[in-house]
Amino acid sequence: MLRVSNLFGRAVRETGQAIDRLGLTIAGNEIFKDTYSRHRPVMNLFDRRPVIAAGVFVAPNASVIGKVLLLNHVSIWYGAVLRGDNSGIKVGHMSNIQDRAVINTVESLESGFPSDVDIGDYVTVGHGALLTSCTVGNRVLIGQGSIIQEGSEIGSNSMIAAGAVVLPGTAVPSGQLWAGNPAVYIRDLSEEEIAGLEKSAAAYDRLGKEHAEEFLPYGTVYQAAEKL
Question: Can you tell me the mean pLDDT for 49-78?
Fold first, then answer.
């Protein structure tokens, strides 16, 4: 029923837009042909709605879609995509999803465990990384371009090297560095490296606040622009 009402409402809106544009054309005003981006950084998917806590930065060209929970002081950077359509996504306190990273989900796992993405606190997901229906503990670095496949579990205080591929169902113990394709154990992290994971995430929170000051909050101004 919800889908039907959404489709009907969209049809009515588009019909109104068409009539409005016809009137403008007749009046000799074709301003509606000017390019205007309707990209929405935060978007519902029918009854699946993002929930965003205080102090969160979502870049204007990022995409947070569907059942996504962003806790306090999360930053979602330029071009990143969080697509909570099949299952849910949670990003913990002070974590950051960097430029062009993609987080998505599958409908179910063969193991029978939940197919959500659960990212803990003080996690850094590097540029261009891909995470699918996995669990990431607290204070973790997911390196640039790495792939964490469905059903994987990354323990707290750990690091996945850039370009690594963690195969489905892999469990990475806490406090370890994994690298390679497929990813394998390399060594244990030092106390200094583990402490640096939290400091790195906090630095991205501060940087996110600077970027947030440049942009107005997202809203529905695009709907008013359609009337021009």
Answer: 95
